[in-house]
């Protein structure tokens, strides 16, 4: 991506370097592994914290009083993240009012190790997540190394895809989609609730594609090879691929984000159309 001279978002909260202080019994080793697997699958593991603990536990974030010392590599990634977030703001500020919804930009929180959100305590191993309770996106920038090295999805646009996907969840929250889906999941059985989650996540993938469409057409942010990086990232974190990595087999009824092929297809739909109408995964007969 060509980020030279681009606007950087001011909606970034830097909590890097804050130290988590635990009290109580906390997570067992099995509990930690359980949450890590959820994070690798792209599932927000915060609702499962009660399942993974062995007793009362509390995490408080302590400010060390010292400014976080970032490496030159981290500084470059932070700058890229700020540019991508700003560009998502430009896209959704233009699009959402057409649907009668003003765009209120989310805050992106940078953290290391652990972070406290309105949805609970998040840890780096869980991966990036969006919390509708405070309308914030949370990310430890070291996840980008994991994306490249563990999942084989390198490149700045692969990283941008991750940000745009989480912002896509924010768009769903503003449109009221998230509230409706969560209510339906409460009434559904496990398999049907998972199926609703897949449609929700694929729509966020499509919204990431919508952003990429406008970033390319309106602001020439993308460069040669960027789309391939995004498609590779979408494929790399499909439920089928991650389940094979984690457990050696695929269980479609347990999918929560969609297969690699589905994630690529819906990202592509948004990328090619640039419209919200193309992203109605809930009306689609076949995903």
What sequence of helices (H) and strands (E) makes up the elements?
EEHHEHEEEEEHHHHHHH
Distance between the termini: 30 Å
Q: Residue share in helices?
A: 40-55%
Biggest sheet descriptor: 4 strands, mixed
Q: With helices defined by DSSP (H or I, 4 residues minimum), what is the helix count?
A: 10
- Name the shape in a single word: globular
Name the poorly predicted regions.
Answer: 25-38, 46-57
Structural class: alpha/beta
Strand composition percent: 5-15%
Overall average residue pLDDT: 85
Write structural notes for this entry.
- This protein is of the alpha/beta class.
- It has one domain.
- Helix content is 49%, strand content 12%.
- The chain is built from ten helices and eight strands.
- It has helices spanning 29-40, 49-52, 72-95, 143-149, 156-175, 177-187, 190-217, 226-236, 239-247, 260-273, and strands at residues 12-14, 19-24, 57-62, 107-110, 114-117, 120-123, 129-131, 136-139.
- The strands form three sheets. The chain has a four-stranded mixed sheet with strand order 1-4-8-7, covered by helices on one side.
- Strand 5 (114-117) and strand 6 (120-123) form a beta hairpin.
- Helix 5 packs across helix 8, helix 6 (177-187) runs antiparallel to helix 7 (190-217) and helix 7 runs parallel beside helix 10 (260-273).
- The chain is globular and about 50 Å long.
- Residues 25-38 and 46-57 have low confidence and may be disordered.
